[in-house]
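Here is one chain, start to finish.
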Amino acid sequence: MNNPKISVVMPMYNSEKYLNESIKSILNQTFKDFELIIIDDGSTDNSIKIVESYNDKRIKLFQNEKNLGTVKTRNIGLEKSKGKYIAVMDSDDVSFSERFEKQFNYLEFNSHIFLVGSSAIFIDDNGMEIKKFRKYDNYKILGWRLQKSCGIVHSSVMFQNIGEKYNEGFYSAHDYDFYLKMLSKGKYLTNLTNFLIKHRVHKNSTHSNSSKQIMFKNLTQLLHSDLKKPPIYKKVIYSFRLLIHYLKTFREKRK
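Its structure:
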């Protein structure tokens, strides 16, 4: 039996409130050749029963013997992945049905790109829209901006399955550290401007302004401070292009 084209890695911990919606958004993808690897990190609610209620051979459920935290759990999922590409998925987020198709085709036709994310709609506990983030799709500009701030929504990404893992010392901002580590290895990262994910923001989710998030953000920037900076004239060009992008999307974010 051939390996699937995409391995979807979904850590899970007490996710019963949102889990059905999240799983269904994966199973309803227009792109069908994938495996959905769900790793339970010691849930005490009905999460496991919800997963087991699905009769779909593409779903593979694994259970940690004890709670290990999101990063270690995510790495376990990476180790079990057999697909050509890894798709990140959080158990409280929602993927649009064409997400995998668009990202798979993009990576297939742009082999120099290691990772691709997408634009995102941020939603609240009840699934109501909070704001939109339409991302810029130039990998050179993104590589430059990532040295200052995280411009990729983690639950939107798909990347080449070449054995890369997350730094388990970063229990916060581990996604940002992963991006900078890939940049330091000469990998190219970008976004699609398409809205392909609904990212849920609630009391249990991490926020960019939390003290821990800021601390680990600063730490990973320090660890990767040797990243090559573009010359001044390119910074000017990149800054101008970003300004145009922000002006175009300013109204959209507040609709």
